[in-house]
Amino acid sequence: MANPFGLVYGGAIKCNEPGKVNICPVHYTVDGIEVAANLYLPADYDEGSKKTYPALTIAHPNGGCKEQVAGLYAQRLAERGYITLACDARYQGESGGKPRLRDYPANRIGDVSGMVDYLSQLPMVDENRIGSLGICGGGGYTLACAQTDKRIRAVATLSMFNSGRVRRNGFHDADRAGAQKRLQQAAAARAKELHGEVEYIGFLPPDKTDEELRMQMQTLPENTLYRDGIEYYGLTHKHPNATGSYTAESFMKLIAFDVEDRMDLIDQPLLMICGEKADTLYMSQDAFAKATGTDDKELFLIPEASHIRTYWVEKYVLSAIEKLLAFFDKRL
């Protein structure tokens, strides 16, 4: 039976029960656009008491949605006493904004600040104990947000993906020469949008059967981002709001973005978690090295894990959760 909240991760909440973590779908606006989010409340939450809680924003990966890995980590951290909020990025998922699937860094960064806005206005949240976790592309945008939004008292990432660097230089910086071509393609896509035609690109082939997706996976090396991504988003944790696509015009904004550019502005405690075998590890390593504004920082590698496997493989999730708890418990 389908999960009543649309959640697609293992062990997801199926109903709200007293004495357990509860989930509350909420809506609010950021810059005039409606945001859809899931608020997770700890098992001991009592609306009638004056107790306040530490809280965490959870930003989902590129092409993902709040019902997948962001929801999993939000629920697990709520089980350990945090109020957590996982939202759909504007223009994506259940949130508003048109054209659909626009992926502008400024929007995603604003989404994180918007989650902080929402949490800080809840009477049960201690606004001096708000932290942020970002996953994959959401990790890069969360780092960018923490560079200037000092209401975020501690910041963590999981399998951080530097969206701008990859769109500009190609994966592993293997196509630097192609940046101008990609910009020309983005400009052409923007011109089409003026006439009502929106062009989409992405890693997950649309309208393919499960068998066709499995066959495509076989053409890619094991434990790599794009092979595991097809498996996760197309097969094991498929969700209709997670298409893996974005507007081609978005490249005009993405290519000019690089989270590494202002990493020195992060003076908050910083934790970056990545799989030891992740082919995206270089992104976390390079951003971490440039975080010169804080001495309270750690790059933690999960043994044997690849990028996507940190999203759902239980032993890797447990390792990440325990590290996140040790980090946030001390700082918040």
Structure description:
By secondary structure, this protein is α/β, with parallel strands linked by helices. It has a domain of 228 residues: 3-Layer(aba) Sandwich (Rossmann fold). Helices cover 34% and strands 19% of the residues. It is built from 10 helices and 10 strands.
Radius of gyration: 19 Å
Q: Approximately how much beta-strand content do the residues carry?
A: 15-25%
CATH architecture of the domain at 22-175 and 258-331: 3-Layer(aba) Sandwich
CATH superfamily of the domain at 22-175 and 258-331: Alpha/Beta hydrolase fold, catalytic domain
Low-pLDDT runs: none
Instruction: Give the distance, in angstroms, between the N- and C-terminal Cα atoms.
Output: 38 Å
Structural class: alpha/beta
Topology as H/E string? EEEHEHEHEHHEHHEHEHEH
Average residue pLDDT: 97
List the helices and strands and how they pair.
Blueprint lengths: L21 E9 L2 E9 L11 E7 L9 H10 L4 E5 L17 H16 L4 E11 L1 H12 L5 E5 L4 H7 L9 H15 L6 E3 L7 H9 L6 H12 L8 E3 L3 H4 L15 E6 L5 H9 L7 E6 L11 H18 L1
